[in-house]
Amino acid sequence: MPVLEISNVSKHFGAIHALNDVSFSLEPGEVIGLMGDNGAGKSTLVKIIAGNFRPTHGSLKMDGRELVMHKPVEARQHGIEIVHQHLALCDNLTAAANVFLGRELRKGVGPFRVLDYGAMYKRAGELFKELKSETRPRDLVKQMSGGQRQAVAIARTRLSDAKIVLMDEPTAAISVRQVAEVLNLIRHLRDQGIAVVLISHRMPDVFTVCDRVVVLRRGRKVADRPIALSSPEEVTGLITGAIEQVA
User: Fold this and answer.
1) Count of alpha carbons within 13 Å of 194, Cβ hemisphere only?
2) Lower CB density within 10 Å: C or N end of the chain?
3) What is each CA distance from 124 to 1, 25, 136, in whole angstroms?
4) Nearest Cα to Cα of residue 76 among 9, 194, 199, 163
5) Gene3D superfamilies given for it (predicted)?
6) Residue pLDDT, tens place only, 45-78
7) Residue 118, C-beta contacts closer than 8 angstroms, at least 6 positions apart
8) At the top level of CATH, which class does the domain 4-90+161-240 belong to?
9) In whole angstroms, what is the distance from residue 82 CA to residue 101 CA?
10) How far lies 243's CA from each of 17, 182, 206, in Å?
């Protein structure tokens, strides 16, 4: 059973039709590349999945059950996590403090409860080891590389029992070595049975790590193809409109 089914989803902002009848499904442990030019509707679709927007028409199902959300916290409760392009990290805090930001562990009784730094350092270390990242819990984020920052943001999604992770341009503006590190992090999520939606403009990344590619143009889905049956040239043609649509 697909972990997520999107059926004929449309989103209208007055006269602006940001999405029109978009449908696709996502299997557990599958990585889908979501591609399209600026204004194609990628961000709108991701915000619907993440609970920021409700669709004007259409429906979402998770594990076969209809999914209705009014705010992002409800998406998290259903096991949907998002790693934003700008990561939303606090540079002056440690990796562990960022992982637990807003979900800090405490110890003690009643009004005498205090932050349990030891437990947070230990759990953050376990998450980084699980992701096979060299990031250390006590390191300050401001001293980290782009790849290490991504590891912190991804580790934060592992605090809950995530079933889907949405990643918005995770390899933008980082070095080649750091790109390889981020792609490995995505593979580790996939190997644990977590479905990933990778929003990216980088064709090599999508064809390296994704199982399928979904292409949007002007709010409509113009392709949903296994990576093995597509090519960077075909996807470029679909994005630009040189190729109208493929089954």
Assistant:
1) 26
2) C
3) 32, 32, 8
4) 163
5) P-loop containing nucleotide triphosphate hydrolases
6) 999 999 999 999 999 999 999 999 999 999 999 9
7) none
8) alpha beta
9) 15
10) 22, 31, 19
